[in-house]
Design brief:
Elements: H1 4-19, H2 24-70, H3 78-91, E1 112-115, E2 121-131, E3 142-153, E4 157-165, H4 186-201, E5 204-205, E6 210-219, H5 226-232, E7 248-260, E8 266-273, H6 281-288, E9 312-314, E10 317-330, E11 333-343, E12 348-350, E13 358-370, H7 372-376, E14 385-386, E15 402-403, E16 409-410, E17 446-447, E18 471-476, E19 484-485, E20 491-493, H8 497-502, H9 512-523, H10 530-533, E21 542-550, H11 567-570, H12 580-600, E22 604-610, H13 618-623, E23 630-633, H14 636-651, E24 653-655
Parallel strand pairs: 4-6, 4-21, 21-22, 22-23
Antiparallel strand pairs: 1-2, 2-3, 3-24, 5-6, 6-18, 7-12, 7-13, 8-11, 9-10, 10-11, 14-15, 16-17, 18-19, 19-20
Helix pairs in contact: 2-3, 4-14, 9-12
Amino acid sequence: MLGKRDKKSTLTILKALRSDTAGNVYAMAAAALFPIAGIIGGGVDIGRAYMAQARLQQACDAGALAGRRSMSGATMSTADAVEARKFFDFNFPEGSFDTDPFVATSDGANPRFVDGPGDKTVNGFAETTLNTSIMKIFGFKKMKLKVDCSSRLDIGNVDVMMVLDVTGSMDWKPNGYSTSNESLKKITGLKDAVEDFYDILGSGGGAQGSQIRYGFMPYNAMINVGETLYDADPSWLVGGVGTAEEDEWNYQTRRAHWKVPGTGLRTTYEQINVAGASGDDRDACEFKFGQNETTSPVWSPGDSGYSSGTPITQGGYYYEFSYYSYWRQNKNKKWCTRKVERYDTPPVKTTTWQPGAEFDFWEYDEFDHDVSAYVESIKSSNPKALRPTLYDNPSDNTDGPTDRWDGCIEERDSYADITETTNAIPENAYDLDIDLVPDSKATRWRPYWSGVEYLRNGSSASDSSCPAPGRRLAEYASYDSDPGLNSDGNTIYSGSLKNYIDALSPNGNTNHTIGMIWGARFLSASGLFATENSKSKNGFNISRHLIFMTDGDLNVFPNRYNVYGYNDLDGRLAPTGTNQSNYEKIQAQRFQLMCQAVKAQGVTIWVVQFTNSSTIQTHLKNCATSESHAAAATSNAALQTAFGDIAKTIGGLRLSK
């Protein structure tokens, strides 16, 4: 026990310590060391965790975007999930920022990328733990990091017009060789690519009520839009106006000449010996005596009491003379016989058939034909039209085959002096005017009618194959079963999109210009179909895209009947006699003029060249909106990839979370 003295001494010491502050800072610093360490350590580790969390989120987002971009259908495949994980791992390698290896959770793989709750959506998830560097001295050794993400195609209102080359070479393999294996043909690759495009971009709808419409314009050297025009307004067509003058169109064709026999016919035969006649005795028989001309020196018309020539009217009778036969008996006897037809009243020759008339001969030139019945025959409920050129030896003016219009057209009037250096569309080049609504014969389209087209020598003109009909913009709820609807929900194409695309058949030559013209017309919001094309269900703007797919160069002929007539006789695009090389140069420039006109309407042009070359041809690259909008495909798989990439870009890939 302390004594009083000891207690007093202790109190004195404590009081002295209380009043003496020397050395207190060391004690205070020692006491504050642990809180300060906790604050600094927490800041350091929280900062590390924040950076790791941000990078983990970036990796998740990158994986979701990559997985969605890889998708070609409504749901993810194993390959899509692998692609997503590859991008995740690139952005966040395992162990980054001193994190622990990923381990599966009770909900599944970690990281994982799976289908979202809606079609065409990818959801991602990842979690890990960060090893602390300072806070572990306080017992906090791990910090949990957890992220999720989602990616979808954010699609507004989109109109897509596909202008598709269906020429004969599409029946070959991409390397240019022929094949009987359908799966190897370019046309099969095209069909698969269109289906992939639809699977990626889809049918629209969704929460925002987006509108997605698809239109198609198959082309070769021809275009098939006749029924669409007829349904929209028959007066847009020559043959659909309803007046005789406006419903006739001029073709390079033939016209029948008829003869109404005279009365009181008496036929006799006259004979002379043409041995010794001037020149060739056979010619003297056929072209002199046979035609009632002087046959020097053996005979003259006066020997029989006739005036020279045929036909003649003499003594109140009408005569026609014609060669009948030639017989060489010996060198001194060469008998020539002619037919002499005498009428009381002469035969009547006419180009208009009448009862009793007999066919006489064909005249080959440019003539008008009434095409109204032919235009109406586009509807299967209407009868076929009589071909006005009839059979070769018709018995009357109805003795001929009947034809049904397949819908291929001749273009309206153009400007024939466009050259390869023309840099603007002339005002009177009506065929290159996208939005002009017809109001005259010059601005109307005409039915293509190969059956009536003849050359001057009497042979039928070489014709062109008619492709499948073009389709206007329509919505399809599914690719393989639902019909095509307009913006009012009415059916305008009853068959499924799959059936339409599967029926495309390759044939014919290549005219890029006509495909671009009509792709633009069917897409335009200010032309023939402005009322329908400018509609959107949600009232928002419409993004318009034209995809131009071709497998080759221009291949058009001035000496073949096509959408611009028969140039060697019609001269509609170039002077008659223009050779094929120069004719194609003119068409190539017209193609460029159309590409510029389409882009000027705010349409995005995508070009896909489907050949064995990875170098895109200059004229195709120049047609596209930019170089990045042009792609080369050298295989069926590459074509599918090109179409898929366009669909994803049009749709606009977005992170939705």
